[in-house]
Automatic annotation (TrEMBL):
<dbReference type="InterPro" id="IPR001650">
    <property type="entry name" value="Helicase_C-like"/>
</dbReference>
<comment type="similarity">
    <text>Belongs to the helicase family. RAD25/XPB subfamily.</text>
</comment>
<dbReference type="Pfam" id="PF16203">
    <property type="entry name" value="ERCC3_RAD25_C"/>
</dbReference>
<dbReference type="Pfam" id="PF04851">
    <property type="entry name" value="ResIII"/>
</dbReference>
<dbReference type="GO" id="GO:0003677">
    <property type="term" value="F:DNA binding"/>
</dbReference>
<keyword id="KW-0547">Nucleotide-binding</keyword>
<keyword id="KW-0413">Isomerase</keyword>
<dbReference type="GO" id="GO:0043138">
    <property type="term" value="F:3'-5' DNA helicase activity"/>
</dbReference>
<dbReference type="InterPro" id="IPR050615">
    <property type="entry name" value="ATP-dep_DNA_Helicase"/>
</dbReference>
<feature type="domain" description="Helicase C-terminal">
    <location>
        <begin position="415"/>
        <end position="560"/>
    </location>
</feature>
<dbReference type="InterPro" id="IPR014001">
    <property type="entry name" value="Helicase_ATP-bd"/>
</dbReference>
<keyword id="KW-0378">Hydrolase</keyword>
<dbReference type="GO" id="GO:0005524">
    <property type="term" value="F:ATP binding"/>
</dbReference>
<feature type="domain" description="Helicase ATP-binding">
    <location>
        <begin position="206"/>
        <end position="360"/>
    </location>
</feature>
<dbReference type="InterPro" id="IPR006935">
    <property type="entry name" value="Helicase/UvrB_N"/>
</dbReference>
<dbReference type="Pfam" id="PF13625">
    <property type="entry name" value="Helicase_C_3"/>
</dbReference>
<protein>
    <recommendedName>
        <fullName>DNA 3'-5' helicase</fullName>
        <ecNumber>5.6.2.4</ecNumber>
    </recommendedName>
</protein>
Amino acid sequence: MPATPGPPDGPLIVQSDKTVLLEVAHPAADDARRAIAPFAELERAPEHIHTYRITPLALWNARAAGLDPETVIHVLITYSRFPVPHSLLTEVAETMGRYGRLQLLSDPAHGLVLHATDVPVLEEVARSRRTAGMLGERLSPEDVVVHPSERGNLKQALIKLGWPAEDLAGYVDGERHPITLTDDPAGAAAHAPGAFALRPYQSQAVEAFWAGGSGVVVLPCGAGKTLVGAACMARSSTTTLILVTNAVSARQWKEELVRFTSLTEDEIGEYSGSRKEVRPVTIATYQVLTTRRKGVYPHLDLLDAHDWGLIVYDEVHLLPAPVFRMTAELQARRRLGLTATLVREDGREDEVFSLIGPKRYDAPWKDLENQGWIAPAVCTEVRLALEAGERMTYATASPEDRYRLAATTPRKIGVVDQLLARHPGESALVIGQYVDQLEEIAEHLGAPLITGATTVRERQRLYAAFRSGQVGTLVVSKVANFSIDLPGASVAVQVSGSFGSRQEEAQRLGRIVRPKEDGRQAHFYTVVARDTVDQDIAAHRQRFLAEQGYAYDVVDAADL
């Protein structure tokens, strides 16, 4: 099989099964990682060789972001140590060429139209059972009418058929509502360096989103996603619906919008379990939207309650399945997804692509760290051995009980003590999954505990005390994974987590990488039980951060 030669000593080995091996110690490894990140997904990241896979979805995201097949092929050839299989290069070009052969367009006479630049492709999808009932009158060999209500469903069906449509049908403008960004030098400078003026990457993110019309902006936690959302709102100057993960996050969005934009408190409504306010800018929780009563979702009407000009999905990787169904009906409105990672543990990334939109902007964590926008972070995995009795209990336990047994070993409490003692005077978070384990740790440390049972008011009080330095250590359950702004935290100790959740790992590191005024490093520790499923799951969780260039040092608890 003919192949295209690369340099004699490149850091990549590109294989015909679409896997790409990266030699971590190679001097050009970082450059190669950055170059392949837009179109390859990390699968495994042990110490020396990282394995990436080139997937159709990653290639389509790259194509939507403006990369052409020639650029992707050039990157593979440039960094590959051995000749790149010709069959792979052909497949890359063909896969990327599938994006945009079908286009959704707005027709003055017929409304929404599916247009093909390649007629046989239209014939193929029109005859598929997946598109049954979605397509109407055939206007010409290249064009077929689409019912406006099927815009989202059709895009989902087409991506499943391997022909992702480029949606160029435009958007309704929505109801006008003036919003401008305001300077807040006094408050913002204290909040984060340079926060009151858009940073260069934030401006680029806004421009990339606006040029694309709808889609996802990927920024590290602590890099000011809320400000990007606010800038897009100012650009739109329309009524806006913002969907967030929880009530604390809703309050935080409200505070930041009042601080950074011309919006007043009276213009911003909160639609959560406790309040049902619909205003020109409305912030709703995913939870309240997905509440079911007698098989129906009573609050979904909120999506149609206003002529929204923009819908913002915060932490879009957590979008619940019912919200996807609603999003299929919102295709005529501009949609902005914000996230630190497009990884979804349920594998529904293609639905984010087709219903929210392609990835429009992605800022690698290490790039922002090198530019000083987020704090440098040291990640360490601390391994401890179970005691003999615990090992026997673990060995005889059912598989579903083993993770909890290993993750909640009481031996972790002493290790947490030792790790916190290494960082006197620093603000620290201890993060875990199991409330009984966290209660023990909080009692041992004499530190306050925040769980799902903590009231919103009490959470806000404790977060405020932590920000001001009154509270030095906070013990938190997974309620603190998302959208909580704790700029002073520089140490995090993770004792347990959701089974192998890569996005949770990213969120937890994100809690501590907000830039520090004294320039200090952030320290992220994961405490795991050696030779157990706890250690295996930790390895899976670390994949996303390895993709971003973070290396985990492994140390033995006995050596602390």
